[in-house]
């Protein structure tokens, strides 16, 4: 290499290095912005908590004070108008404490402390004439011992209240295990002497996920539960 060529290489080298540094910095900034954007999105549990608060604020009807403690069916997940989920069909002044993914077992949901027993005390800060507990589909993969323990905790929380338990329907996505949970809850309700409303025989319409109800499905489910409540002494 001649002296002129050597100096030319030295001139070009800083320019090349500078370009590489700029490219690396730009790439790093892009990654950081992407991570920041992802981090700013609410988590699944945060979304469910927000949906739960919104549904709780949508009190419907008048008369007998009914509190519904339930899962995504009560919360209205998948509906354009969650306030029209099945509890809105009940006759009375209805409040809903629904949380998607929750169940009787403590770990039915990945979200912390959202089982029915966990949420019942807060829901009962406002008095109710009747407490309707609806669920079981999210307990499909939980050990029987955990469902029993959660049910026992719930009954302790609801001691002194008038309680009715509404079991899981045979949603196609979980029909086989739902039948087992239904049988388990039937026995638990009898043990704790609370009325049990089985819904496994209902023909309902479902969203494409084969787990959540369509608006028509909610109406049919709610009307059925309302009729069964009317038959209770």
TrEMBL record:
Cite the entry's keywords alphabetically: Membrane, Transmembrane, Transmembrane helix
Q: So which domain of life are we looking at?
A: Bacteria
Q: Which residues cross the membrane?
A: 15-38
Q: Extract the SUPFAM superfamilies matched here.
A: SGNH hydrolase
Q: Which Pfam families match?
A: Lipase_GDSL_2
The keyword Cell cycle appears for this protein = no
Report domain SGNH hydrolase-type esterase positions. 68-220
Q: Where is the signal peptide?
A: none
> What name does the UniProt record give this protein?
SGNH hydrolase-type esterase domain-containing protein
**Which species does the entry assign this protein to?**
Nocardioides agri
